[in-house]
Specification:
30% helix, single chain, Quinone Oxidoreductase, Chain A, domain 1, 26% strand, Rossmann fold, 11 helices, 335 residues, alpha/beta, 16 strands, six-stranded parallel sheet, 2 domains
């Protein structure tokens, strides 16, 4: 089968199209024929080596973290799915590889595709929706009438997180360029801040939750718009020692991350704020809950562009440009 791979960590180089064997599934896995794949900044960060400390992959590596497709084979112990099921998934770390013809995925990381979505729409959902769910539901326990600041609202995570927060009954503030305001208002954003002209720190105060996806300077500013007892969650770093412990990283990685995050953790503690770093994890059960919200039209996908499979490198570069509004998807080429 065909797959887009990296042979070494490289910030500027392209993914390489290669012929690789079709995966042989284990008893608890399903084989999925890939119809569409979501493209994420995480793919770029892994490709460049930025995440090799916390995600030490063996190379060569097929990239891709989102998939929608059809099950063509099931392992002997698989109980929830059958051949022919239309599914979607964010495969677990160290089991990624959706920029390909087929992928083997543990059944616990798979969910049935929402009936009201195309394959391309479904492929845009798993990583960003699970990120939003784990941040707002699992960590922040976001409640009705609370206030949440979701940075970069027009991005992949932002467009889904805004909708989820509104479904939970929160007031949502976000940053974006003015040309995205109409779309974000339709998604449910209450407070729209033009990051090119306005400083969110002078507009927002006494917020309950921040979902940070920007740099450390922005994260530090975000702490100051929160009230004591609030929650700050960052999906862009710095990772913490607690995160290293949770993923079972070696002691020296825990030490390094504790040092890297010391400054922000100290500032958060001084303000009485709970800070945590989130690198979302695969979870088919949560994804099935998200499917229910999609089928109820509480959450809808926001897809910016769909690229053909042979333009996977161009799709990744478009994501890296920061210009995407919502998600970028690769459609499997015609056979």
């Amino acid at each position: 089968m065909k797959a887009f791979r990296i042979n070494k960590y490289d910030k500027k180089g392209d993914l390489q199209l290669a012929d690789v064997p079709v995966p042989i599934i284990k008893d608890n896995e399903v084989l999925v024929e890939i119809h569409a794949s979501g493209v994420n900044l995480l793919d770029s960060k892994i490709k460049s080596g930025e995440f090799k400390l916390i995600l030490p992959y063996k190379l060569p590596l097929t990239l891709g973290h989102d998939v929608a497709g059809v099950i063509t084979q099931v392992g002997g112990q698989v109980k929830k799915f059958k051949v022919g099921d239309e599914v979607y998934s964010r495969p677990a770390d160290h089991h990624i590889g959706t920029f390909a013809d087929y992928i083997a995925i543990n059944e616990k990381d798979v969910a049935l595709k929402p009936k009201n979505l195309t394959m391309e729409e479904a492929a845009s959902i798993p990583l960003v929706a699970l990120t939003a769910w784990q941040a707002l539901v699992e960590i922040a326990h976001l409640k009705k009438d609370q206030k949440v600041f979701i940075q970069a609202g027009s991005g992949g995570v932002g467009t889904i997180a805004i909708q989820l927060a509104k479904h939970l009954g929160a007031t949502v503030a976000t940053t974006a360029s003015e040309k995205s305001f109409g779309m974000l208002k339709n998604l449910g954003a209450d407070v729209l801040i033009d990051y090119k002209k306005e400083d969110f720190e002078s507009i927002l105060k006494d917020y309950d939750v921040v979902l940070n996806s920007q740099d450390n300077k922005t994260l530090e500013k975000s702490l100051r718009i929160l009230k004591p007892g609030a929650t700050a969650i960052s999906i862009s770093g710095p990772p913490t020692g607690d995160f290293a412990k949770a993923i079972g990283a070696p002691w020296f990685v825990k030490l390094i991350l504790s040092l890297i995050s010391y400054g922000i953790r100290k500032k958060a503690k001084k303000l009485g704020i709970d800070y945590s770093f989130l690198l979302m994890r695969a979870d088919g059960r949560q994804l099935q809950e998200i499917s229910k919200l999609i089928e109820q039209i509480a959450i809808k996908p926001v897809v910016d562009k769909v690229f053909p499979f042979d333009q996977t490198n161009e799709a990744l570069k478009y994501v890296e440009s920061g210009h995407a509004k919502g998600k970028v998807v690769v459609r499997k080429r015609e056979r």
